[in-house]
Amino acid sequence: MAKVSVLNVVVLENPSPFHSPFRFEISFECNEALADDLEWKLIYVGSAESEAFDQILDSVLVGPVPAGRHMFVFQADAPNPSLIPETDAVGVTVVLITCTYHGQEFIRVGYYVNNEYPNPELRENPPPKPDFSQLQRNILASNPRVTRFHINWESTDRLEAPDSQDPSLAFSLGCTPVKGLGLPACIPGLLPENSMDCL
User: Are strands 68-76 and 136-139 parallel, antiparallel or unpaired?
Assistant: First the structure.
């Protein structure tokens, strides 16, 4: 049984300009005190084609954590636009919140993110090179995708993730996303239903 349960994640200041920081209010519960830190990470998926474009926006250690309910606001700077392929700058991508204990990831919360021009003229005739100062980021906050992994809470020995919960598959966008807030058609089939749910 997991010693930590994420109770809720609230996306703050959404939608917002592309260059604005990401802000998430995270509530979680510890069933018993943890002697060591939890490591939370915020990852921006820069391209569906390769993990090489993923950016770790921030990483924070929380702990030691006493038993009970806890809440904090996780804030991270926007991704570096120069590391995002121009062809992937506008449209749908993903932002991931992960948490690990002793280096073992036990939860991943993913949100679809739509980067678009709010100006109708720019939407109809986008500039040849993305203008990040004009882009608006809209996180689909109502539909998080949550993947939980079984880990060994007692020691630093890692458990192998079952094949059906391969972390590399949990939120891969190995297909062409649909423009707008429409979601890529291939996403629901990436994991068995029993390993994903909404908060």
Answer: unpaired
Q: Would you state the pLDDT for residue 154?
A: 87
Who's near 179: CB < 8 A, 6+ residues apart?
91, 92
Provide the edge-to-edge strand list for the sheet that holds 4-11: 4-11, 22-30, 68-76
Q: Tokens at residue 192, please?
A: 């068995």
Identify the helix (H) or strand (E) that includes residue 122. helix 120-124
In angstroms, the CA 118 to CA 134 distance is 8
- Written as six digits, the tokens of 136 are 């608006």
User: Is residue 68 exposed (0-12), middle (13-18) or buried (19+ Cβ within 10 Å)?
Assistant: exposed
pLDDT at 174 > cutoff 60: no
C-alpha to C-alpha distance for 170 and 90, rounded to whole angstroms: 23
Q: Each residue of 39-58: b (16+ CB within 10 Å) or e?
A: bbbbbbbbbbeeeebbbebe
Q: How many CA atoms lie within 13 A of 94 on its CB side?
A: 29
Q: For residue 15, report the phi and psi dihedrals to the nearest 5 degrees.
A: -70, 170
pLDDT at 52 over 90: yes
